Request: fold
Amino acid sequence: MAIANRWPEYAIVGNTIYASGDYWQSGHWTKNIEVSALNIPATIQANHEAGIRFILPSAPNEVVTRP
Reply:
């Protein structure tokens, strides 16, 4: 599954990414994406090329924040 969208605000809870959206532009307030649906290397590479730091938590109790 290829998801070529960008979400500036998201939260990762368990195995799901909850990405906030603008209903009037995207048709949804929140989009739920299973982490297993991501191509992790391609996601990291695309974010790196865009200058975005993308980090997945390495443990269930890890909190990752960004400025």
Observations:
- The mean pLDDT is 80.
- The longest strand covers residues 16-20.
- The two ends are 29 Å apart (CA to CA).
